[in-house]
Amino acid sequence: MIQSGVEVAWYVYGVVPADASFKPAAEGVASTRVEVVTEGGLAAIVGRVDLDEFGEEALRRNLEDRAWLEQTVSAHDGVLSGAVGMTPLVPLRFGTVFRDETRVRELLGAREAEFTAALERLRGCVELGVKVFLLDEERSEEAKPTSGRDYLLQKQRARDATSAALSKALDRVRDLHEHLASIAGGARANSPQPPELSGRREPMLLNAAYLVRANEQPEFVAAAEDHDDPGLEIVVTGPWPAYNFVEAEEAE
Amino acid sequence: MSRDLPLEQQITLIELVDRVLNKGVVVSGDITLAVADVDLVYVGLRVLLASVGTMERLQGQPA
User: In chain A, N or C terminus with fewer CB closer than 10 Å?
Assistant: First the structure.
């Protein structure tokens, strides 16, 4: 496997049951072939990558390269997403690299109980994301202020109205999250994203992920979108690999 | 190629980075990402946002 001094390493995307029947994505990170390494009842989805691209130094440097980051992150997700709905799947965090196949087998052996339990928990489920945005309310036009005092009073009224609307919206969003969590197999409320991340000027009030039975997705989406509040916009994403539901501290 | 992605794709990409770099089971592989100890997703988002000038411009415009 060593050619012209380039060392090969094993990039691991995730773990599936050994008997999983799914068609791996054609191409993974760095346009490498997607392969499977089996050990006992588990299989790792892997790819052989060059250390001069995925070694520590190289990785650190490449992470700063926007084009590389885009391609590689998309490829990592593409491999995992290709298996969603076909097999339970434990995603590993980006950038998990082993020196050789034996080390990958050792990983599967060493953490067999943990991976097996996670796969059992995730069986038949997908992750759906739900974001809620607070839309700009339509403010009634006030009369042009006739004095400085008048102006300040108007400003105060506008602030009060905004804060009342926000507080009401937050109540609704909390109710929605509680309801969705009650019909989901797992729920996780992440920090709402600031506008630079969401790409939206409107404030994000909820940034949650739910573990949903694959065959109940339409019902779940309907429940998420079932509201009559014109001040809220609800955005459902997915199905995703269960990125949010494989950590030990599964809060909420 | 990536500089002129439409806004929607930029957002999808940020969503992806947020999941792929931030979530998933943490396994100590043989290649240790020194930056991972700091915050992998922070690095990724910083790189993405640094060149998302289009996004900021769009945000500054009335809908």
Answer: N
Q: Residues of A with CB below 8 A from B1's CB?
A: 67
Number of domains chain A is built from: 2
Strand partners, A49: A9
Region of residue A248 (phi > 0: left; psi between -120 and 50: alpha; otherwise: beta): alpha
Show residues of chain A in contact with B38, CB under 8 Å.
none
Examine the domain organization and report whether A115 and A26 are in the same domain: yes
pTM: 0.85
Strand partners, A237: A129
Which residue range is the domain that position A79 belongs to?
A: 2-123
- Do residues A111 and A167 both lie within one domain? no
- pLDDT tens, A225-237? 987 788 899 999 9
Residue A33 forms part of a structural domain: yes
Residues A244, B30: C-beta atoms closer than 8 Å: no
- Among A73, A91, A123, the domain-final residue is A123
Q: Residue B14: is it exposed, middle or buried by C-beta count within 10 angstroms (0-12/13-18/19+)?
A: buried
What are the pLDDT digits (tens) for B1-51?
444 566 666 667 888 888 998 888 988 888 866 555 567 888 888 888 876
Which residues in chain A are contacts of B22 at CB distance < 8 A?
Answer: 93, 243
